[in-house]
Automatic annotation (TrEMBL):
InterPro entries xrefs: Cys_synth, Cys_Synth/Cystath_Beta-Synth, CysM, P-phosphate_BS, TrpB-like_PALP, TrpB-like_PALP_sf
Enzyme class: transferase
The protein's name: Cysteine synthase
Requisite cofactors: pyridoxal 5'-phosphate
Pathway named in the protein's UniProt entry: Amino-acid biosynthesis; L-cysteine biosynthesis; L-cysteine from L-serine: step 2/2
Similarity comment: Belongs to the cysteine synthase/cystathionine beta-synthase family.
Protein EC: 2.5.1.47
Record field: catalytic activity: O-acetyl-L-serine + hydrogen sulfide = L-cysteine + acetate
Residue ranges constituting the Tryptophan synthase beta chain-like PALP domain according to the UniProt record: 6-282
The keyword Nucleotide-binding appears for this protein: no
Species of provenance: Salinimicrobium flavum
GO molecular function, one term: cysteine synthase activity
Length: 295
């Protein structure tokens, strides 16, 4: 029995791929972050950022939170802010899926939609300007060390233990980069030979949740020395792998997870041997109003 829904954050399942790879000397595992109560990997940093800010006295129940988001972090923050009775205003591009917007509002958050053409960068600029105008506190997932430390304290140790210390490669999409930074830091401390593989979109590819940031928007928490290799994926292969995850492995996820899986499968076919873990960062029901699963 759990005292709070927050007790269910983390300890997500690790499941072996059965059909996606053909290399008998390599094992591929998916970490199912959609099993978090808020439906994504972002529950981990959202909880840690709010909890630590409260502990340090940076925020109180009178504080108005504001944050720019492309979706999953906003949902997690809305859920957790509601539990702590905090007001939160979330800023996101107007082309975000309706499921994401409605979920945030269901948790009690105020949602402001910015022009689609500006993307998440425009949402970040809007939130920064609001900070200058009013009495807001921004958690700033892009520059908050409590983001990546959540993965150092939870995601990395879980993967290390669940693979019986045999992991050789870790694959993660890169957005705010908190997941890959924290997990890399932990895994490298345990075994420096573990390879950390980041996934970015190819030029002009639009894959929600995966970013190739302009220099001026590069997350402050990102340290390129913690990533051994970057693989790029294009939109068609990310879409197709997302559908294959559902059809062949029974893993219903979003396109950023498909992009990471596509890179992981490509990696597995080139390795002589290894144990590869890829992050499945959310659930596919967040994308049903899009054309992702159209055949």
């Amino acid at each position: 029995m759990n005292d709070s829904i927050l007790d269910l954050i983390g300890n997500t399942p690790l499941v072996k791929a059965k059909y996606l790879i053909n290399n008998p000397r390599v094992e591929l595992y998916f970490k199912l972050e959609g099993q978090n109560p808020g439906g994504s990997v972002k529950d981990r940093p959202a909880y840690n950022m709010i909890k630590k800010a409260l502990e340090r006295g940076e925020i109180t129940r009178e504080t108005k939170l504001i944050e720019a988001t492309s979706g999953n972090t906003g949902i997690a923050l809305a859920m957790i802010a509601g539990i702590f009775k905090l007001d939160i205003e979330l800023i996101m591009p107007e082309n975000s899926t309706v499921e994401r917007v409605q979920t945030m509002r269901a948790y009690g958050a105020k949602v402001i939609l910015t022009a689609a053409a500006g993307g998440i960068e425009g949402a970040r600029d809007y939130a920064e300007n609001r900070m200058k105008e009013g009495n807001y506190f921004m958690l700033n997932q892009f520059g908050n060390n409590d983001n990546w430390q959540a993965h150092y304290e939870t995601t990395g140790p879980e993967i290390w233990e669940d693979t019986n210390h045999k992991i050789t490669h870790f694959v993660s999409s890169m957005g705010t980069t908190g997941t890959i930074m924290g997990t890399s830091t932990f895994l490298k401390e345990k075994k420096s030979s573990i390879q950390i593989v980041g996934v970015q979109p190819a030029d002009d590819a639009r894959i929600p949740g995966i970013r190739k940031w302009p220099r001026e928007y590069l997350p402050a928490i990102f340290d390129p020395q913690k990533v051994d290799r970057i693989l790029e994926v294009n939109e068609p292969e990310a879409r197709e792998m997302t559908r294959r995850l559902a059809r062949e492995e029974g893993i219903f996820a979003g396109m950023s997870s498909g992009g990471a899986a596509a890179a992981a499968v490509r990696l597995c076919e080139e390795l002589e041997e290894g144990v590869v873990v890829s992050i499945v960062c959310d659930r596919g029901d967040r994308y049903l109003s899009s054309d992702l699963f159209d055949q």
